[in-house]
């Protein structure tokens, strides 16, 4: 075993392919860099869009790094390990995925240079790890405090996440909506994501998106169109009693019988009577429980719905399990498995339940008990795809706002944070007396890739931009960043281009982890499906950091530029 590298002993047939040492590294680095090259042009507010053709033939236009990576068919294990890290970035902090991948690619490129100069892989990974640790500290010095009551500041944070995804007007509009949602349920500086519901409904423009006080639930449209003739339940019920049924309101539940055989008109008549009887029992139970609204997880027979409507009770069928749970939390109702378990104690209360049409979708808006806040964001978009993509970006926005409010700190964007970190790392490097110094310097160079690309995407000369930024930071102007709209350098905080500290920190940590994983790997073993390769490794057998990367696809693997989902 040599210096932290990994070896394997293989036994197997001809169908085992191996790549060792520099060959393995080159192949991995090439894959990682290719992935980074592919998405780097999407970085920043002036990033370009990508047109993706998914394997099922759908065309998607997006410049959201996370969304692109998600849809790419990536088969190379090295590229896949970068994707995994990017996904973690996305799920933990909701932003910074493109930055993390681009930084990982740059760290790999610089590591390759160092390896060529004869620097050992362990020296590189240690130096990178030290640099990353130092970088996180440097970011702490860069923070601005977030005031959760300062809506303008929060809108700036939200806008920095979404600029470039839509035009200026739409970004401003949607950023404001995201802030409204978060502030509606903010409590003592904490945001409970369970109190937020998002729904994407096609058929209208972004500007028809709205924040709704309460929980919105999809109503199966069939459940109301078939309620005829009138009278039906009112469109809005104030101070409603809510029942939740985690089952169905059909005849089978009541009898436990699957089929009924009818042999004569008398039988049919008897059966009809029996049926009517069961239905009426159902309805009586609901009426007796005092319910004004019933949400049912499965279907409700037309006849039951009709009888309920006649009693002025709103019945909603096919409510999803998670929605039932949310309704339970909001109203205090306990979902019952069958109608027989429905008692007044199992019901809950809602300040108001309202039926509302949004586009072709019918929604039930439920405001919870007096002290329970729920808020929903109904997002519109021309097509289902546009509405879904909007929802995706808004989700990131909500996550980022949550981080900003809960952690209470943001750092300047527009490359300012990266230039500050690079400057600090170069200073730190001179205090590192061994060869790790070279890796720390390589890290400093790598992190400047962010301002370089931001400059490039806006038609600025990347070298001049970075040189000028460095000079401004050297003069003590720590928040100097790229003002991409005007092609100048300005105070990023004053311009409102700020991002949560957690996003930047996670991007650096994620990228370092991904790069170090690939620098450490010195052997790639490819095993065809019927090949019998046994990796006898004293370390981990999985695909985790430092492990052996296996594939059933055979070598060479390609970073798929064909997209699939
Ligand atoms: P990521 O997936 O890494 O979040 P983005 O495409 O969202 O990638 O770009 C984020 C980068 O764009 C950050 O470095 C951020 O500071 C920068 N940025 C965002 N808005 C602006 C702006 N108005 N001016 C300058 N830089 C900006
Ligand atoms: Mg972003």
TrEMBL record:
Keywords assigned: ATP-binding, Chaperone, Nucleotide-binding
- Top-level taxonomic group: Archaea
Gene Ontology MF, one: ATP binding
Record keyword Nucleotide-binding present? yes
Where along the chain is composition biased (Basic and acidic residues)? 533-544
The record, for SUPFAM superfamilies, names: GroEL apical domain-like (SSF52029), GroEL equatorial domain-like (SSF48592), GroEL-intermediate domain like (SSF54849)
* Any Pfam family the entry gives: Cpn60_TCP1
Q: Which InterPro entries match?
A: Chaperone_TCP-1, Chaperonin_TCP-1_CS, Cpn60/GroEL/TCP-1, GroEL-like_apical_dom_sf, GROEL-like_equatorial_sf, TCP-1-like_intermed_sf, TCP-1_chaperonin, thermosome_alpha
Q: Where is this region: Disordered?
A: 533-553
Family assignment from sequence similarity: Belongs to the TCP-1 chaperonin family.
Q: What is this protein called?
A: Thermosome subunit alpha
The source organism is Natribaculum luteum
